[in-house]
Amino acid sequence: MEFALLAILALVIVASIVVSKYTDAGGNPYPFNRKDSVFTTVEASFLQLLERAVGDKFKIVSRVKLIDVLECKPGISNKAKRAALTKAKNKQLDFVLVDKETLNVVAAVDLVNNSNKNGHKAQKDWFVSGALESAKIPHIRMKVKTGYQSSEVRAAILFKLGKQPDVPKKTRNRTFKPAVLSPSQAKAQSTQLAEI
Description:
Blueprint: H1 2-21, H2 41-54, E1 58-65, H3 78-89, E2 92-99, E3 105-112, H4 126-134, E4 139-143, H5 150-160, H6 183-193, E5 194-195
Parallel strand pairs: 3-4
Antiparallel strand pairs: 1-2, 2-3, 4-5
Helix pairs in contact: 2-5, 5-6
């Protein structure tokens, strides 16, 4: 009987030690709370703007790992492949535009904050740009600023994709007339919005 009581006591002591390791005293393996939002304020605003601008043409996927849209070319050495995948593994794209029907990647869109040099992707990531260019995926870098109109964003994205912006049709009995711009003016306006 004493042996059974000692065994139960030992079991209780071992269980309490194990439980204490997984409490909030620093050993909890799940020390998480839910965030209020998946997106920062800037990302949420820009996502809504993107949806208004090109949501009719493309699906918009956010926070995509670079490695999810790229693969190594065949014929490279294992060492070169490992090095490239290691560099790409921790890179992330803010938004990816995907064809609605085929679900093929059309373009990558990153937000750029030039207001301070430590801001969100303030410095151009040459590895990301080079990798996307090598894979023939347009990389659109949009400057963070207030006052964007969805039509401006749409025109800039379509210009970068080599497509002509749509001419708006009659809306609520009003006819919109697009401003007549020379090709050089249109290019200058579009490249102000979307860095190349």
